[in-house]
Each structure stands twice: as C-alpha cells, then as structure tokens.
Fold this sequence. Notes:
The structure is a homodimer.
Chain A: E1 4-18, E2 21-32, E3 39-45, E4 47-52, H1 57-69, E5 75-82, H2 91-100, E6 109-116, H3 124-127, E7 131-135, H4 146-163, H5 177-188, H6 194-203, E8 207-214, E9 222-227, H7 229-235
Parallel strand pairs in A: 1-6
Antiparallel strand pairs in A: 1-2, 1-4, 2-3, 2-7, 5-6, 8-9
The first copy, chain A, binds a DNA duplex through helix 6.
Amino acid sequence: MEAIISNISVDCVIFGFDNNTLQVLLTKRELKDRETGELLIADYTLQGHHILVGENIDDAAKRVLKDKTGLENIYLEQFQTFGDINRLRRPKDQLWLKTMYPMVSDHVVSVCYYSLVDSTKVNPDLQHPYSSWFPVDQLPELGFDHEEMISMALEYLRNKLWREPVGFELLPDKFTLSQLQSLYEAILNTEIDRRNFWKKVSQMKFVIPLDEKHKAGSRKKAQAFIFSKDVYERTRKDKLTLSY
Amino acid sequence: MEAIISNISVDCVIFGFDNNTLQVLLTKRELKDRETGELLIADYTLQGHHILVGENIDDAAKRVLKDKTGLENIYLEQFQTFGDINRLRRPKDQLWLKTMYPMVSDHVVSVCYYSLVDSTKVNPDLQHPYSSWFPVDQLPELGFDHEEMISMALEYLRNKLWREPVGFELLPDKFTLSQLQSLYEAILNTEIDRRNFWKKVSQMKFVIPLDEKHKAGSRKKAQAFIFSKDVYERTRKDKLTLSY
DNA sequence: TCAAAAGTGTTGACATTACACCCATGT
DNA sequence: ACATGGGTGTAATGTCAACACTTTTGA
C-alpha cells in the first residue's frame, strides 16, 4: 500500500448519458453499528481518494477514474477546489471518518474533477459493486459536500457545452442526431426545435455523416454521425463578441 | 506566528487596469550569495502564501490580498489548482526554497485565484516595497510556474468577461465609455468599433449614466457612468443558445 | 483654428426562431 | 393502416459588423 497525503484528496463527478438523461456515478456508503447492526449511515458519495506521495493531482484523478470505471484516456477536467474547514463537519461524516479513517486529517482540501464517459463502456456493477448511476435531477442522499460538488460540476459542464463540443464524449462513437439533441436537451435542461438543431449541427464541419444507418430504437433508420476532434481543432475559430 | 500547512498554498493573480493596459501585480524575488554578493536569483513572483492551520482556502486568498494591497472585499475567484509534483523543480526555485524555506514540503499544491482591483486604490510601493505592476503582455522573468498561472488566469478572465460584467471591478466607481471600451479592448486583445460598443452598452440597464461630466484627459468632457450590481442581478436572464 | 476625443444612425449580412408537412418502417 | 420518429424549407425577427460626419473644448 502506498503512502497517502492525508490532507489533499481528489473527487470525481463522473457524468454519463443514458435513457435520454444525464447521469452521475455514485458509490454507496454504509455504516452499521457493530453490536446492534443498526444502519448508522446509508447514503452515497462521489468517487474520490487521497493523493499519493509523489503523485500529480491530475494523475490521482485518472487513477480514481480507472479504479471505479475501468476506463482510461477519458475526458477529465478540474473545475474547483473545496477547502472550507467545515466541509467534513456534519455529524454523520465525522462518524464515518472517525470509524473508517481515524488517522486522516480533519482539514482535507479536495480538488474536484468532472469527467464525461460513454456510459455504454462502463459497467459499474462489475467494476465496483457499490456503484450505480443516478439521474442528476434525482440524486439520493449524499455524503460530505458532494451535492454541492455535483451542482457546481453541472454548472461548469453547461458552460463548457455552450462553448465547446464536449457533449460527444458522452455518446458512443457513432450516434444519431436525435441522440445528440436529447443530450443537449438533458444537459442544458431545455427544449430544442429539431429542425433548427439539425441546421445548426450541419454547419459544424466536425460532425461527420456516415453512410451507415442506425436503427436506434426508432421505426425509420436514422443516419449515423461521428465527431471528429481533429476537424474541430483545425476549423475552430475563437470568435469573440461583446455579448453577455 | 501562526502555523502553516506546508503542502498547500494559495497564489493570487492580481489584475489592475492602468494606462489603457491590463496589468498584473508582481513581487520581486532576489537572492544574493552571502559571501560574494553575486545575484543568484532576480525575478518576480505572484503573491502567495501557505494556508494556515484552521484556515479556509478562500480566506487564505483574502488574507494574501489584504497583505499585499491593503484591500478587502474585492473581486476574487478561484480558477485552478496546480498540483504537478515538478512544479517547483527548476534549479533556481529549488535554490530559493532550500535557502529561504528549508522546512517546506517538496510537493506543494497551489490553489490559484485571480482578483480584479481598481488600481487607483492600490499603491503597491507603499503597501509592499517589492511589488509593482507589469503589463500582462510585457512580463518580466517569473519564478516557479507563475507564468503559466498568469496566462491561465487571463484565459479565465477573458471567458468571464465575455459572459458577466466583471470588468467594472477594474475601473473606478465612475467611468466613461471610452475607459470601459479600452478595458474590453485590453483584456480581449481586440479592437471594438466605438459606435457598436456604445449601442451594446446602452442596452445594458446596469450601466447607468450620471448627470456628471468627466474630463478624463480628453478635450471634450465625457459622460460618467456607474455600474449597478444590483440592477444587474435583477435583470440578468440566463440565455442559452446552441452557439459555440 | 485645429487637433483630439465625444456623440450619434443606417444599412446589409448573418444567425436565430417559429412553424408544418411528407417519408420510411416496424408493429 | 397507423403510429413513431426521420428528414427537410421558408419567412420573420433579432443581432452583429461596417461605416462617416458633426460637436465640444483645451492647447
């Protein structure tokens, strides 16, 4: 077992997309009284871990992700560091820490990342028996300050989606326009006109139509598309306007 | 002297606006050989400090700001945490740390903030004899990874300026439209048509014309404006579009 | 009187929005 | 045959970019 740095951790908000809903991967946290068997704590937390001695924080986040999803080389972005001295001070969190990690410092600063994964590639049940997906708008009870982390991650994701084509990270390599549209609708929590969305997307040179057709649960077969990061990088123009 | 947490620090990129230029406040770092008097290190760094035991990281940033500028309640935003194990590994930085702070950990994670100040309210020479303002596009040699921090802070500031009216933090309470315009031009590094800018700004209900006239170095007196945060908060509508 | 900055409107191009019908296919 | 989602065009509106002349006033 490698040595941890006890006052710095990383937490990962792992987003996936399924059933036309934006989901978050959470891990169950349970604590029973040793004698009575009474459930003292039963809630969920994000995936996180302390950083190791000699480990970059970005690498710590990648490690957590690999451990919990089995995935590597996925979209990962640091969005905020939580360093309030009271962030672990709720009684149930104190109870959890005292019981499970008695040696860990009382003031842990957590560097938070969000990552976007193609949820068809993750099988949380196999990877980690206590993990499961929850829709972002129907979260269970959460430990620590993880609810705040998720809502802040979502805010960052929304802002990012608005400016950069990160949504594709959440879809399989090949996708249809309606999948893409419902992804945008789910993340931005809005409705989009299908024809206008089509028009917008067809201007994006980096969304490339394939010859293939997809029978994505629909009656009529829909055209499949892929996202080309390469084309995106080459054709991006950093427009600046004055608009707020 | 209060106890510090040796592996966590905050660094502040303090932006000001003067001479129609976006400026950064930097502190001189000098190290001379004790015997020969030879200058071993002569460069600049950001303002930073380790967090104290029992101190929130946001409060640590406020403390650094207060110490270096004398100002309180100013715009401050956490933008990124630097946690690479090699970030302090350049020979001159190692020499500096070994000489000045021999007890400090080798792996310091730094939580970075940028702040926006009305530079007319700061007198860095009085506040701190080794501090001075530098235009962001004419930086001196910098210690540690502070050059990267500044360029990342600038990126975050640009994105923010695009979406929210933070620029006013850099101006005196009363300002003219040409001051505001040259602020936008300096930060976004672009030229803006004066008439279009005027049109845009006059739609912003939170930029409020005063009866006063200002003789801001110009021949003709210009109208003075103030920014109302209150009006902004009440009239903001979070528009979402699909545009990148 | 003139140089330098302030103040102001119009037009064309482009982007966004709203909206309705036909098509292909699996049931 | 029909229900479901796929595919497409047009008109109205709003926003952005380009552009030139007059006014004020300090030197």
